[in-house]
Amino acid sequence: MPPVPTPESFRQTGDHNRPVITFAVALGDRPGRAYFGCSDFKVYEADLGAAKVEFKELHGTHGSYVTGVAFAAGCVVSGAYDGKLVWWNTAENRHVRTVDAHGRWVRKVVASPDGALVASVADDMVCKLWDAETGRVVKELRGHAERTPTHFPSMLYGVTFSHDGRKLATCDKVGKVVIWDVASGNQLGACESPGMYTWDPVQRLHSIGGARTVAFSPDGTLLAVGGIGKIGNIDHLEGKARVEVFTVADGRSQWVFESDRYRGLVNKLQFAPDGSWLLAAGGAGEGQFEFLDVAAKRPKRQDKLTMHTHDFAATPDFGTVVYVGHNRVVVHKPA
What we know:
Elements: E1 10-27, E2 33-38, E3 43-47, E4 56-59, E5 66-72, E6 75-80, E7 84-89, E8 94-100, E9 106-111, E10 117-122, E11 127-131, E12 137-141, E13 156-161, E14 167-172, E15 176-181, E16 187-192, E17 197-200, E18 206-209, E19 213-216, E20 222-228, E21 240-247, E22 253-263, E23 265-271, E24 277-283, E25 287-293, E26 298-305, E27 309-314, E28 321-334
Antiparallel strand pairs: 1-2, 1-28, 2-3, 3-4, 5-6, 6-7, 7-8, 9-10, 10-11, 11-12, 13-14, 14-15, 15-16, 17-18, 19-20, 20-21, 21-22, 23-24, 24-25, 25-26, 27-28
């Protein structure tokens, strides 16, 4: 394994204005190549290593916000609020298939580490596993309630594969995380992070928050969950950025981090290649990223980003991190 970059070594190397909100990013099979799901219902591609970076429209076949993208089996697989998944062959620049995947908004699309499977989650509270090559449904995973305890519709925000591809984790609005066996589709365990969910029964009959992202440690022993702490005024994302780490084997909470510097959602988490630190990114009006020391259970670096951040993607060695959000794409690399 090459040396793992230190949190202090990352520097901004690119900052690109965009006329849209970018909700999702995935890296391709060529160095510098990235794909973006956006608020104008389109998917874009760009070579971020080029001397002049250009964002080119790949396709505009969705009917709503594109909130998930993954690269697998030579295709960009995108999901949107229209409930559809679209496969687009990047080498041949052609549409492969469109699938009516979910009955409600698609929230996230990810590929397995070997690229053989694609997982999608949506507000119908179902996680579906797809054969990346054929587009066939392999499994339907149902373990999240359709309504919150206070009788509001719930939402299924996040999904991730373990590094060996054998496990999958999904997370929902009330802070419930379910761990699945990929081969059998059986539920292996669950974690609860209710501190990420706020319901106000007095001023507003309204709920907000939720677990937005999950990440397995490289050795598969830990599961990190990201979201937001308790919110006073539920009309704003004023809660503290929150991360909770659990042991996979028994679902027990090991530590909770609530930022002393930043408020807003944690929308994406990822462990360092050696598991020594955890990168969290998100925001409210502004954006931020925070590196957390896993052993010491405290922040190593906390810093601003130039936009509310919805997602990031990193190369396996963390040689490049691409952050996306409101009207910007920002690239960081270790110095």
